[in-house]
Predict the structure of GMP synthase [glutamine-hydrolyzing].
Amino acid sequence: MIKDRIAILDFGSQYTQLIARRIRELGVYSEIFSYKIAPEELLRWGARGVVLSGGPESVFGVGSPVMDSRILDLGLPVLGICYGLHLLVHLRGGRVRPSGRREYGYGEFIQDGESLLFSGLPSQFGVWNSHGDRVEELPAGFRRIGFTKDEPNAAIAWEQERLYGVQFHPEVSHTELGKEIFANFLFRICGVRPTWTLANFVEETLETIRREVGTKKVLMALSGGVDSSVCALLLHRAIGSQLCCVFVDTGLLRKGEKELVERVFSQDLGIRLRVVDAGARFLRRLRGVADPEKKRKIIGRTFISVFREVAREVGNVGFLAQGTLYPDVIESGKVPHPAHVIKSHHNVGGLPQKMGFRLLEPLRNLFKDEVRQLGKELGLPPSLLYRHPFPGPGLAVRCLAPVTPSNLETLRQADAVLLEEMERSGWMERVWQAFAVLLPVRAVGVMGDQRSYGLTVAIRVVQSQDGMTADWVDLPKELLNRIAQRIVAEVPEISRVTYDITSKPPGTIEWQ
Ligand code: XMP
């Protein structure tokens, strides 16, 4: 087990994940826990230090989150950030004052005296604030270690007790020396070492998977996306032929998708893969359905029924594996209590329970970039490693025209032209997603001397950090031109190409 580990107590800040990221970037393992965690649990988990996150609440609010104050008596170093600072002050008998309005933005932070937390940092640096309350009176034992123009107590410490608090957010990149502040907290105050490496993770995880799985078989739905691919590789390394991967051809895949997955997994990596051709079944159930939510439900249900049949055929299946990542776990509101690598409470669509399986989620404590790095180390080829996200319901949510085999083929062709041009021009790796959408709109055109009256395709190319917000990409005119000309020339059913210039918000990335 990795001994040097830091616990983050979550009080609901939008930045809590960033705290975990910053700490892991410094090579120290960290996990996020509910603020409700008991002190004994923290000790059992092996925390060597505790960070209290920010939060949207005021410590004065009715029902605001308050942790067990005995956590402050464990002798562990504590760093309170924003709300975490207020809580620290509040619980230790100091006074926090509501300022009645939230303050956002930059401030110049000035150090006051020496402190380990800011050791080696300049006496003045820029910080990012976002808070409503402020510290009015310090609890006994504490002293101020820094201030800003508006905040007389922007940072406080009780060095002997190793209790620290900052009003600003060191985890956001706008705080200039945030990383150095965390490094001081980790290495100088908590005394941990940077032992979190993927090699350690792999070693530990393989062990856990083998122990948990025993002689049972593990079934896993492989989508060809990064997460499920890396998950499959890890499991394959742990349990070899006890892993059975299933790739369902829903008839809603992109051009060459099935062939790529078969080649990489079956041929190159030697992983046991079952390919189920269920396209006809999916398309039959989708016939005449235009409503996006209905489409998703039908696809989800059909997927489950196909999967169940495969499970029955395979036999002796005890586990269902999923490539759930840490942000999914956090965002689903299921911040774990001291987590094992494998948990069974988080699932999608109730699938495992209905089937009597246990859930295996070996990536559930990793962030996306860590998963990519892991995939690289496990030998996943770049063609899969750096793929754009692709929605589970596939082309069904990109085919606004009736979901028929011929419309899907039209969409597939237009999409393939787009992706080829994006690859060729080097734009593919510079954007978050690029895809075509088939619209149920006919438009008049001229092809040679002939009048055409074909369908319309919309091109969507967006940039994004995490898919939560996105901007449309201003592709060069020549590239757009080439894409449009080739689509109309090479896909006979299409007579018009449009470019989607809606950002998210107010739009979403997908059209359905
Ligand atoms: P939206 O359209 O909500 O999409 O802006 C955000 C990101 O999520 C992907 N997406 C999905 N992924 N199942 C998935 O696995 C879905 O039903 C689904 N819908 C959207 C989308 O491609 C984008 O990256």
Notes: Residues 296, 389, 391-393, 433, 467, 504, 508-510 surround xanthosine-5'-monophosphate (CB under 6 Å). Confidence is low (pLDDT under 50) at residues 336-350. The domain at 5-189 is CATH 3.40.50.880 (Rossmann fold). The CA atoms of residues 2 and 120 lie 28 Å apart.
